[in-house]
Amino acid sequence: MTEVLLEIKDLGIQFKTGEGVVQPIRGVNFSLKKGETLGVVGESGSGKSVTSLAIMGLLPEKKSKIVSGSIHFNNQDVTHLKDRQFRKLRGNEISMIFQEPMTSLNPVFTIGEQLSEPLKQHKKMAKKDRKEAIINILKQVGIPRAEQIINEYPHQLSGGMRQRVMISLALLCDPKLLICDEPTTALDVTIQAQILELMKQIKSEKDMSLLFITHDLGVVAEMCDRVVVMYAGEIVESAEINELFDNPLHPYTKGLIDSLPTNNTRKSRLFSIKGQVPRPDEIGKGCAFANRCPYAFDKCIASAPPTFSTGEHLSKCWLQEPERQVKIQ
Amino acid sequence: MLDFIVKRVVQVVIVVFLALTVVFFLIRLSGDPTTLFLPPDAPKEQIEEYRELLGFNRPLYVQYAEFMKGAVHGDFGESLRSGEDALGLVMARMPATFQLAISALALSLIIAIPLGVLSAYKRNTLFDKASVGITVIGQAIPNFWFGLILIFIFAAQLKLFPSSGGGSVKHMVLPVITLALYSVSRFVRFTRSAMLDVLSKDYIRTTKAAGTPTSTLIMKYALKNSLIPIITLIALDLGVLLGGAVITEAVFSWPGVGRLLQQSLMNRDFPIVLAGVFIIAIIYAVINFITDILYAYVNPQIRVK
Q1: Rounded to an integer, what distance in angstroms lies between the CA atom of residue B163 and that of residue B147?
Q2: Which of A138, A297, B83, B130 has CB atoms 3.0–4.6 Å from A146's, for a disulfide?
Q3: Is the predicted pLDDT of residue B222 greater than 70, yes or no?
């Protein structure tokens, strides 16, 4: 069995808000093997981004707190790591690509200046070597005339180009784990396809694990080996990619798959899951999805389901209780 | 670039022309200067004679045309009081005002920018709350009152610094502190809010995710972005200070432009007032010009091609 790079156990994160304490992450478990691409799927507000920020140690210090569980990265417990120590991992062994390429680069520094930062911090490279390394990586991510681009400012580049710069920034120190938080959401469809293609290519060239956060199951199908589905701060289902699409066990996953547009359903309206993700303070003692679930019954409202497993396929739904085992096709 | 400069010079000419025109007519509303030069019981004929001598008996538009003709050649006439060249008198006072303004501004920035940055970084801590509280008080205290209190404590009681006049570094201490109090408060609050705004931006998160230490993050990557609005405030402040900090200069009898203009207004010494307005308008225009160039330096998005 391949080695585990990232292991998250029973993670719980609380946030202080004006109206009191809420807990957007409630007992998240998953692991990522070396060289694997894991998709994290869910609607806005399901806790995907908060989880990834926790892995980067970038949760807002004063407002949030990890209240339970642990995060292990490369056999090191990083759950309550001091910022000073976390800094050595960030941009070095763990990197992240953010959703908004348009606003994620500093407008008053050149591309070259911004890209030299991780090399200065982690590799202690001399100026000349840094320049060479930067031009090299920009070429790898498919940026033309890299020698000029390093002296240009972000506003001189298009969205797709900026995202390529963001990717190169994340790759500079050859990270073991690359977290991609909706890297293509803000881009138009053709650019999106190019960026996904680029990421696949980089993945195949480098020995790297990918945590791919998205709300788009289409992107997941394209990129990932395995998927975890998040809903309201929990993981409701996790499975190998083909298994998940062929045989979804949780009604939420089923709803997400049914919401995908296909080529031959032009005539009717797209399917959508009714309602929206509950706010953390709206979740009762039952299953968080119960109020939107077409299969919900008494037990779903009375108590929250535990995780049931069928081999590697995990789901958090009363329908999968061993004595029930309902197929939801 | 040349295009830019030409445009700005034309703008300056228009601004100076308008400022002089407005002040020329406004100042006439303050009354006839001749009455101030003659005893209250002077006979009517004598007043008339004096008015004719100074040219105040001619129609206003003739006086205006005459004045503008002179102004174009840099001639603002002589002081009604001393008979010296008005522009020369104003220029003689400029160094003192410059000295005070630059010192006060430098002191404010040295204190306020680090304080503002620290306040933003330590947001909602005791330090931040104390600094916000103190700066509110600093902005609320009137200048003249604070100046008088300083004179009372450090000049009258402790006898550490002279209470009035100019000429030495010791003379500068109290007026500079008086002027800096307000500026420091304004700059601290402004730096703090500009910094808070920048710290919440996506690109700061990106830099943090690259493993940048907090000190570099703030002093390099965040500060340069915050400077854009701060430069505006510096320009405004400098304009006010160079125009003559009238009240502070009066309180400390500082031999600057502000005090000269204030006295000239009281004496209805029109040529000096107009020469002063001319100089101040030009100073404002130059400051604006430099500010625009600084903007382009700090913010590449508005750099002229």
Answers
A1: 10
A2: A138
A3: yes
Q: How many structural domains does chain A have?
A: 2
Going from the C-alpha of A311 to that of each of A6, A238, A247, A277, A315, the distances in angstroms are 21, 11, 13, 29, 11
CA of A91, closest CA in chain B: separation in Å?
A: 4
Residues of A with CB under 8 A from a CB of B: 56, 58, 62, 83, 87-92, 95-96, 98, 100, 103-109, 114, 117-118, 121-122, 153, 155, 166, 169
Residue with the larger pLDDT of the pair B164 and A254: A254
pLDDT digits (tens, 9 = 90+) for A79-102: 989 888 999 999 999 999 988 888
pTM of the full predicted structure?
0.82
Structural domains in chain B, CATH included, are 2-72 (no CATH), 93-302 (1.10.3720.10)
Amino acid (one-letter) located at B253: S
Q: What is the mean pLDDT of residues A304-323?
A: 89
Whichever domain contains A220, its CATH number is 3.40.50.300
Give me the domain span that covers residue A129.
Answer: 98-172
Confirm whether A116 is domain-assigned: yes
Task: Considering only the beta carbons, identify the residue of A96, A104, A121 that sits closest to B212.
Answer: A121
The count of CB pairs under 8 A between chains A and B is 76
Mean pLDDT computed over A168-180: 93
pLDDT tens per residue across span B60-73: 888 899 899 988 88
Residue B84: which H helix or E strand, with range?
Answer: none
Question: What gap in Å lies between CA A154 and CA A174, rounded to an integer?
Answer: 23
DSSP state of A110: -
* pLDDT reported for residue A267: 62
